[in-house]
Amino acid sequence: MSTTKKFVAVAVGLGLVTLSACTSSGSGDGEGASESKTVTLVSHDSWAASKSVISDFEKQSGYQVKVLKDGDAVQALNKAILTKDNPQGDVLFGVDNTLLSRAFDNDLFQKYEAKDSDLLPPEYRIDQQKKRVTPIDFGDICVNYDKAYFEENDLTPPESFDDLVKPEYKDLLVTENASTSSPGLGFLLGTAAKYGGDGWQDYWEKLKGNGVKVVDGWEQAYNEEFSGSAGGKKAKGDRPLVVSYASSPPAEVVFADPKPDTAPTGVAYGTCFRQIEYAGLLSNAKNAKGGKALIDFLISKKFQADMPLNMFVYPMREDAQIPEEFTKYGAPAEDSEVMAPKDIAKNRDQWVKSWTSLVLK
Amino acid sequence: MLELDEATVRFGGRTALDAVGLDVAEHEIVCVLGPSGSGKSTLLRVVAGLQPLDSGRVFLDGRDLGGVPAHKRGVGLMFQDHQLFPQRDVGGNVAFGLRMHGASKAQQGIRVRELLELVGLPGAASRAIASLSGGEQQRVALARALAPRPRLLMLDEPLGQLDRSLRERLVVELRELFSELGTTVLAVTHDQGEAFALADRVVVMRDGRIAQSGTPLEVWQRPADEFVARFLGFENVVGASVSGEAADTPWGKVPMPAGAPQGEVTLLIRPAGVRLVPSAEGLRCTVAARTFRGTHVSVHLQPESAPRLEAACALRDAPEPGDEVGVAFDAAEIVVLDGAPISP
Amino acid sequence: MDVARTEVRAGRPRTPAPGKSAARLALLVVPVVFFALFFAYPVAAIVARGLKVDGAWQLGRVGEVLAQSDIRHVLWFTTWQALVSTALTLLIALPGAYVFARFDFRGKQVLRAVITVPFVLPTVVVGTAFLALVGRGGLLDELWGVRLDTTVWAILLAHVFFNYAVVVRTVGGLWSQLDPRQEEAARVLGASRLAAWRKVTLPALGPAVAAAALMVFLFTFTSFGVVQILGGPTFATLEVEIYRQTSEIFDLSTAAVLTMIQFVAVGAILAVHAWTVRRRETALRLVDASVTARRPRGAGQWALLAAVLGTAAVLLVLPLAVLVQRSLDAPGFAYYKALTSDESGVFLVPPIEAVGNSLQYALAATALALLIGGLAAAALTRRDAGRLIRGFDALLMLPLGVSAVTVGFGFLIALDEPPLDLRSSWILVPLAQALVGVPFVVRTMLPVLRAVDVRLREAAAVLGASPWRVWREVDLPMVRRALLVAAGFAFAVSLGEFGATVFIARPDNPTLPVAVARLLGRAGELNYGQAMALSTILMVVCAVALLLLERIRTDRTGEF
């Protein structure tokens, strides 16, 4: 900053500080002196945790936790990369396996191996040499079906990718734009994992021939087009199959009043793609020590058990207790398609591009 | 009391005030008279501090007003279209200046009552501005300007927008009021009747300069030059060649008062000095038009081969248009004007 | 016109007095610093990040980006849909402007507030509601089996939905003040009704229509949410593409080029707009709006009124009604009740607290917008101000045409050093919202301030009022109503502002639109229902704010 710029900045800054001091919305707490006492977590908008769990950590560790929600997962990552030299926080949570390479390419994280990381399933503990990220949770992107529709029409719901191109499911599926939507991309990657880098295009040709509908985002697909969701019912959605999450059926139960006995929707388990969310210590974290403690906390038993009903994901720790509602209305997929982050990194952009011209044009 | 020294204002390439020097004495009523664009409003704005000078100085009570902002000059200005504050009632308008000068509520109340009585609007304090007639607005504007007891009161076309009878009445009222209060007044108008009725002294302006300054009588009797004469409404202005007690004009030989300067001059023959005589005598003219002026009739006469002449005559003597009349001139009503002579 | 008057005109200085213009420039300091710091600097920073590699500008990227057929397609689509949307909006809204200007009917005030609600509602909400009209099972589908969702028609109609009020307010506001006697005079002189309208009213309205059209063009040219939600993946405007490139694909250099293209386009639109606005300020004989409106007479006028009300009902009220209906679609106001509990887990706080957050942010943003916009308007009051100052007038409108994601990301990399490390401060949200609010404040206040007679201020000065007192005693009472109207608009706009807010990192105190978006992003009936309930609350708050404004509408309204 030049001197004049600095002067102006100081002047305006002072004005703003006075302004903010006048209001009681005391969210911008101590940056300076209490720096080491505050640890900042940057995450996406879906972040949620029980207050008690967080405050237990605060009491135990002596750190104040500040959470910044920075848009959806992609935005949160992009912003973290933009502010790499002067990060907004200490830990970034919510980079999934489809995006991890972008974080690595930009040297976003520094090395840290979480205390209990040996308790996590080894297949998810990637990057073992550099130890830059810790897996926190996983979920599955799967086709959901509207139970009522299939009962009424006396039709068996599809179970696999192969089923989706069968004539009896013509014009039933709605999915999301792979270039703008995370489940849309996951579904594309799932087909690529299943049919291989050369085969997925043939599959999508067939899917297109079978009347797949593509909308821009999950909200439209699930709340407007899908006939099985609460929103879709009101919007008279007419697609009984939608690309969503394996955890969507439990959500339909938990977020209903009164709660139904069974979920109104089901999961086609043969259409799943596994999404793994990671957390990492940001390269220029101001409170690296606090950040490390926070990552340890994210894989603590307490937090892991708290996650499912807050963020609708499965905890990484196998010994974390999963709430009954969660297991009762939906189980994790047994054999999800998986793909190594480096394979995703290598092909993602090219696949999305050819997918766009194949399906959208 | 007020003194302008070489006051000059330029707007772009145009000079609105050109090195104007003017003195106004205590208790004097000075009227600046001039046509549109002569710079008379600019003069007021300069004194009020609304228009900075390009050069020259303004003194009030000996103090140089340069750099003193309008609100600290302690002068009053009444705008030509009054500019009353539409959001305030009559009392609020009149009290405005008092309030600005920190007068107490009680003082304001007393003074407002006093002034409204003075301008003939007793009890009007709570009336809305929109409900006032033109004459009433004029009175409120005056009361507002007078309220803070300005050292100098300036009036910009004070009666400009009122109808004739109201104007004539108010002129008299104002004159009485000002002499009663002893107010020093600098007024600006384009109406000579108004100026002559109101002023102790008249200043005629032309193109940013002062063309003539004097008592109404002096100016009326001896206009300084052709411009002033014509501005005052005189039409019989011609170039002439004077020799002895007579002058050669397009209208023939004209008698001159004794002691008149000799040679090429500009002459003003007042309408009263144009006497109608039987058509056989004097200059033969045809009556072109006749205008009724209340106290007299103005007659426009067309000689055979000379410019028109204006004559004033009594009501019962006035000829009909088309009549043939003769014209003779009266030396007492003939004035030699200053300034370059116009060629005959 | 009498002589004396002419002289005053001629005698008035052409150039402002040096002291006064310096004071006016001083007034501009705060707005200029505000815009430089919170708009120009962040936007420049993000563009530079995209286009500057090792300190060298990669201007060759412009050519490369423009050479891509996808991008050219986006540019073409952006332009033509904006043109068609504008034409369509004028076609549908001009009769509305006439009806609102010239007819008196029951419920007019309420209706005028209602038609403005879409303008300030977040697109997330509106998109959902609008599908109820043109989508599956919507009115058109039920009546004629026509479905327009994911067709370009959905986008075009939604643009009409959004901008109807812009035309009705801008054109209708002036129309209602045009003296009907002028048209009558033309008719007495033998002109037919149509000819009288064409020769007298149309020329007078022309600049207002042009100004409205340009505003609509600007809003549709930079349309984001509508295109994203209703257009499906096949349609993209420049704004949507900038969002995708920045936020999803993270190709900052392409985004920077597109930002620059949009900047140039928007700048051109604004220049034309400023020009028409200035023309609109030419002398027109205006009368009090309340005397020009009368009850419709004859079958023709009643039919026109019915047609306009019918259109407004279908196009504007119905989608809003659907929202309300969906929010009530559970026994015992269950969705509303759920808003007060914090069990849902989507937030750390009960969603209803978003209302409080929104109000706080909106109040702060309104105060900021009034301060900045008020100072700018005061400085721009003189019509004979220099070219530079007039240019600033147009500049203030630029934030309306720059992608929220550009500004949001720009904040992130520009305001990251103390004392301006505002990235995680709550003040950033009202700051971003104020950027959008300022143009509304300026546009509302400027015409009123310009209508105040300079000599009224001089009269006060001569009576002993200092410049500050003059402003307080003369200007303030006259602009108070305009100020309230401006405040209301700034308030409603920041209440509904979504783009910039969502791109700004913030602690967990979501605003209403953000909360709605987050609820919609979750599966489950209660989430969906709460989203509808919150949208309804947002709508009602906006409508109430606007309705209050209706009561204090100024005689001389600005453009909105």
UniProtKB/TrEMBL annotation, chain A:
This protein's GO CC annotations = outer membrane-bounded periplasmic space
Query: Origin, by domain of life?
Result: Bacteria
The secretion signal range is: 1-23
Please provide the record's keywords in A-Z order. Signal
GO biological process assignments: thiamine transport
Transmembrane segment boundaries:
none
Q: Name one GO molecular function term.
A: thiamine binding
* Keyword set includes Signal: yes
Q: Which NCBIfam families match?
A: sfuA
| Name of the protein in question | Thiamine ABC transporter substrate-binding protein
Organism per entry: Streptomyces flaveus
Q: According to the entry, what is the taxonomic lineage of the organism? A: Bacteria, Bacillati, Actinomycetota, Actinomycetes, Kitasatosporales
Automatic annotation (TrEMBL), chain B:
Q: Name one GO cellular component term.
A: ATP-binding cassette (ABC) transporter complex
- ABC transporter domain span: 2-232
Q: Which Gene3D superfamilies match?
A: P-loop containing nucleotide triphosphate hydrolases
In the Enzyme Commission scheme, what number(s) does this protein have?
A: 7.6.2.9
Family matches, as Pfam families: ABC_tran, TOBE_2
Q: Which InterPro entries match?
A: AAA+_ATPase (IPR003593), ABC_SmlMolc_Importer (IPR050093), ABC_transporter-like_ATP-bd (IPR003439), ABC_transporter-like_CS (IPR017871), Mo/tungstate-bd_C_term_dom (IPR008995), P-loop_NTPase (IPR027417), Transp-assoc_OB_typ2 (IPR013611)
Q: Which UniProt keywords apply?
A: ATP-binding, Nucleotide-binding, Transport
SMART domains noted in UniProt: AAA
Q: Where are the transmembrane segments?
A: none
Metal-binding among the record's keywords? no
Query: What protein name applies here?
Result: ABC-type quaternary amine transporter
This protein's gene is called fbpC
